[in-house]
């Protein structure tokens, strides 16, 4: 480490408004929620971490390779993914030394100035690894060694970190085809950490998914149902949902390109499914089938009580050459304009007034916050708004979410925070950012005499802890 | 009332920025406009209140039943409308005690934290009824009794409140089929309050309105014109507009699903109308007819000087089951994406440069503020922007309106505030919120040295008083 | 000048937040960049000004007639363009005295309160002409005389102003048909000012351009190529691009109605072009041809290194009567909703990963900042975001640009500021506004402990100076 290293300090007032009146209120509100347990009802961590409790390999494997926020930003400035050790579509890797990949990252930290990645990373570096200098070209090796050495110790094993982070419950996301053996192993181990799954059936629902046909076949094998028959296919879902629920799941998750829903009469739905599995459907029927399946999933949620989530609006794999070389989920998904008003009406007209039904909707199209989503959530009893998500999980994005939904939906038609991440170490950082921003939003309301401070304190606890537990039935 | 009741205080600086420099300026600006008379050029109060001057019944009937902002929020959390005494579509009511309905509301005031409803309600409670404690489960009966008792007194009769509120003029909204007998009664009574009507012809213009056919028939009876003939139909409009103008109307109002306008040659318009009234039109021709009629209304405005308003973009009655049970206007209308650029061009190309023509356009799609509406209003001489409306009448919504229209349209292509409400008692509260927010916006400009304070003071008076009078020719 | 004239003072802290913590930081950051040279990589100044160095005529000709921001605002309030001396489509003018036109403007300065025009004008009045009182009806003649007199002096000739303004380099924009004789004259003169051109081929690319056919003919004459043959047409572009590059151009600019791109196989492209030049194309093929040509221009940029710019989304000449009377570019262009995700994919899939290729994209649809443009720029190596543009160049618009792109694209996928103006005297004012707003944005990040102040200072210099030079290869 060179002697010119810059200090890294997490300021205790970070993300609070600099106006003294607002800052003082934000501090007081935050003090009451900073230590609350983490409830993580939606995310993509790997359950094998807690099943096996094996140490993480090194800084690059832990922090760089799984974080598409980081490597897409580097790629956007002309750095090849191979130089960062990102796997190829066939599972192979360029023969890059992980330390070299880390140095490339370290030389380019200026790209992240002002982004949420820099907030999360600094939190991880300072709080989890106790690093006191900034990451840059001069400190790259110091960082790499400090982190990699720490990972060899017992305190940095997955279960130890889970406990240190104060996680009360975390949900992973699995395909219906997953045997949930890691979740079973966690339960069998006697470890007290609560890790639950969530039912994400996209591969057996989306006829355009590249794995649709083999997935459907495996779906049939696993359930013993004739999944090429409409009734058998629906029973297979019911069966796997029941299994997931038995393994702790309280929710389902649906990542469709749009939010379209349909409510076909049963004979039409059956005929559509028959054309789909026979490979005789028209191109636009894939969309109609996904739409119908959202309504079928809603029907099952009415029965089994699993909370339904829809995450629409991403154009997947926008870069063809990069997809061919490196495969899915490599930072090349781009949001699209998304309609909710007409799209959700068939499902809502069918089940939207059912007492036990709960539907959490997310968006990547912020123009719908005030125009569509807050009005929908501010009317329909089943409907709740998921938090600012993915491209919108910056402090600015969280402010926009609150400022554009508050007037019509209030706080109580929202569900608190989702970290939605594969980057395990960033989970406390992400929840901390969300809690700080919510306290800042509330502090502004208090400072402008729109909300009493004791009421704001209650809202702060609700957003950080009570609402996610309640909304997700955790 | 229990002893733990929380105090209710309207802070004198509410809604002003907490930054001391901005707050001091906002205070000074507000002091100059706080006492200006209320000009309410667009709204939905019931003229029979001032015609009959009968007392309001009780707290629930006055404040809860007519306010869809409140009962839709309660419905969104699973509270049936019947539990609140909201009328059914057939006019019947669930046999709910109004005091019980009020208690349900009182137990759920947390839902309104941070919403404009809480601002308006607190203002009504504190300023109009002198209540000094917050509404909650413990104070529900105290509230119900205090309000209901007050309503029995002379000071809380409609005319007395009108005068107490400092209303200089208020516009109601009536169908062309309305005989305007309440307005006549107000005039005949010798009372000095100025209550005018506005011409809202949707039921006789929209072929998809459920009351279109009977409305058309009544339109013919009322005017003595053959309204099944294109010329007679247009003459009927001219006649009713003249009658409305004679009864004080200075404006028309058009609540179409989109902002589409058309400029058909007369023979096409006539043929379209003939197909419409013969029930032989194609489904898309209803939209074309509404579009053509906006241009016909503009033509009549050029002649008779009535200011034209378009309020587009609402998907009406999104909840089918609720509509079947409770009917229209029950908080289930949801905004939609709205285009203005192509939509308005036919009307604007025809009449947009006419010296006497004035068109005020509203939106429920905030993404059009900076992109479409401010550029249109910043060019076309006839065009003015209506204020942040309905789902966007929160302080945040008003800030977005100003921040997204100011750069291109300035302040002087806008028309000041509309309260647009049926909730009579909230009118002073709503105007007060708008005035405070405008002062806050201006204070920021002054504090950032973009506007001299004396110019800001002139703008504040213009927005609160001069512009609405001038824009609406009141 | 009357005695009641109001003082005009440019406050040294203008546009900085009034919060003392943020303001102090903003001041320090701004002090480090206020004196940096102006890099103006995109604009519409007239190269003849520096070729001929002739004096400007008077206040009205210099400041009012070329500034569509000003005369469209006056028009929006009913002032005819003829009263301002704006030329007609046929080149004639209403016989208006320029001093009278100036007085009309002076009487209406309240319309510009809070708009960017008022910021720019005040800067020009105070800094360039040393005026110490505000423009209004009472000071109109004082202004007119002061400015008109100054323009007669050597210090106010175009080259002297260029040097006084500290312009390091400025780009103009020319059609491929332009002989660039003014640029040649500037070079031949030995004057040291750097004025470069940019290649704007819309008239020979857009089949719907009113001058398409004569432009194409002239394109052939100028290049000696058979431009009615696809290969000859492409060679003509290559030849003119090379000529423009030799005259200093480092970029091309494309002002299409949409951002649509296409990647036809060569035989299809050839056949399409053949139909276009034969006048036998379908209406929708004009759009397809423009789309294909963007990809052809990208191919040429890969070869010759010219940086490509796309400025989509304007509905041109929205007011038919005004267009007939006064022609193009008279403040009647209105932004439209614009898609980028699907539109850019063909071009990006073809050239988006090429190492040397650089594409700068602009928008008039702010709803795409966070949803589409920041995610695209935060992934694709070729892609950079142009600054807040035209209708969005207000301080509020610049804040929205930063707050909505920062999280996903960071600062380093943006390119600093473009003034994009014909209004020469406003150039220092416009750059000053952009620098102040960027310092304000950075100050907020520093004050909220999200960025170290030394890093913010580096970003401030990058945005004001290094990034535009680097992005545009200047």
Automatic annotation (TrEMBL), chains A, B, C:
Gene3D superfamilies: Metal-dependent hydrolases, uronate isomerase, domain 2, chain A
Keywords (A to Z) from UniProt: Isomerase
GO MF term set: glucuronate isomerase activity
Reaction equation(s) it catalyzes: D-glucuronate = D-fructuronate; aldehydo-D-galacturonate = keto-D-tagaturonate
Top-rank lineage group of the source organism: Bacteria
Listed name of the protein: Uronate isomerase
Gene from which the chain derives: uxaC
InterPro entries the record matches: Metal_Hydrolase (IPR032466), Uronate_isomerase (IPR003766)
NCBIfam families noted in UniProt: PRK02925.1 (NF002794)
Family: Belongs to the metallo-dependent hydrolases superfamily. Uronate isomerase family.
């Amino acid at each position: 480490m060179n002697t010119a290293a810059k200090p890294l300090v997490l300021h205790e007032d970070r993300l609070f408004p600099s106006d003294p009146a607002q800052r003082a209120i934000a501090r007081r509100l935050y003090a009451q929620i900073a230590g609350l347990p983490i409830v993580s009802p939606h995310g993509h961590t790997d359950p094998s971490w807690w099943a096996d409790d094996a140490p993480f390999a090194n800084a690059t494997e832990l922090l760089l390779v799984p974080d598409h926020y980081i490597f897409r930003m580097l790629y956007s400035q002309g750095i090849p993914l191979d130089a960062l050790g990102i796997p190829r579509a066939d599972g192979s890797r360029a023969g890059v030394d992980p330390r070299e990949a880390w140095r490339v990252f370290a030389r380019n930290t200026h790209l992240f100035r002002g982004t949420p990645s820099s907030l999360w990373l600094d939190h991880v570096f300072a709080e989890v690894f106790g690093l006191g200098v900034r990451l840059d070209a001069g400190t790259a090796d110091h960082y790499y060694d400090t982190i990699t050495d720490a990972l060899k110790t017992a305190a940095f094993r997955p279960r130890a970190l889970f406990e240190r982070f104060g996680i009360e419950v975390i949900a992973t996301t699995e395909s219906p085809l997953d045997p949930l053996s890691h979740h079973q192993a966690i339960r069998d181990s006697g470890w007290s950490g609560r890790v639950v799954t969530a039912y994400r059936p996209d591969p057996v629902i989306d006829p355009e998914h590249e794995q649709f046909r083999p997935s459907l076949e495996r779906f049939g094998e696993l359930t013993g149902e004739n999944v090429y028959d409409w009734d058998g296919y629906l029973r297979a879902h019911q069966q796997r949902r029941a299994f997931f629920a038995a393994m702790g799941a309280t929710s389902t998750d649906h990542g469709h390109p749009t939010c379209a829903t349909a409510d076909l009469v049963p004979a039409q739905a059956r005929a559509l499914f028959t054309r789909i599995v026979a490979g005789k459907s028209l191109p636009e029927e894939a969309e109609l089938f996904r739409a119908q399946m959202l309504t079928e999933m809603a029907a099952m949620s009415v029965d089994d009580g699993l909370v339904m989530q829809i995450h629409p609006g991403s154009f997947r794999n926008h870069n063809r050459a990069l997809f061919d070389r490196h495969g899915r989920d490599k930072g090349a998904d781009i949001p699209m304009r998304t309609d909710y008003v007409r799209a959700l009406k068939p499902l809502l007209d069918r089940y939207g007034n059912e007492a036990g039904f709960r539907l959490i909707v997310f968006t990547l199209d912020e123009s719908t916050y005030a125009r569509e989503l807050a009005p929908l959530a501010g009317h329909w009893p089943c409907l709740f708004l998921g938090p600012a998500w993915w491209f919108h999980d910056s402090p600015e994005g969280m402010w926009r979410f609150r400022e554009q939904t508050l007037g019509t939906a209030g706080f109580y038609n929202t569900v608190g925070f989702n970290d939605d991440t594969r980057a395990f170490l960033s989970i406390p950082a992400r929840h901390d950012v969300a809690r700080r921003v919510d306290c800042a939003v509330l502090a502004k309301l208090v400072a402008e005499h729109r909300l009493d401070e004791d009421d704001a304190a209650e809202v702060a606890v609700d957003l950080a802890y009570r609402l996610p537990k309640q909304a997700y039935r955790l």
